[in-house]
Design a protein that fits this description.
It comes from Rothia koreensis. This is Polyisoprenoid-binding protein. Residues 11-131 form the Lipid/polyisoprenoid-binding YceI-like domain. Belongs to the UPF0312 family. This protein has 131 residues and is mostly beta strands. It has one helix spanning 66-73, and strands at 10-13, 21-27, 31-37, 40-46, 51-57, 61-62, 85-95, 99-108, 111-120. A six-stranded antiparallel beta sheet has the order 1-4-5-7-8-9, with no helix packed on it. Strands 2-3-6 form a three-stranded antiparallel beta sheet, with helices on one face. A hairpin with a 2-residue loop joins β8 and β9. It is globular and about 45 Å long.
Amino acid sequence: MTAFNELTPGTWTFDPAHSEVEFTVRHAGISKVRGTFNEVSADLNVGEESSVTASVNVGSLDTGNADRDAHVKGADFFDTENHPEMTFTSTSIESDGEDFTLNGDLTIKGETRPVSFTGEFGGVAVDPFGA
């Protein structure tokens, strides 16, 4: 398998059918809530100045609880009616070959903040459908 730091230079587009953003948050300081955003589009530009840009459809949030999801998508939290997407633009990428850390700017509801995300590189595959 190709390691993250061995990718051929150029632009790599994440496969939206096989990509998701997973998260875990603490609820009331006691329990953990896990969920996913199932509609993600992202590009990785590999080269001297490697970067990642991503857009997430906030309405694709799924925590496994419809009532909670509706509340979090509402005006109290994400306000998906007025802010249907969040975006991420990397400022640096650190990799040990398989795992990586993305540092960058996350914009949610018009507010941009610096963040760091960890990820796992799953490899490269040729689209079997020729796209």
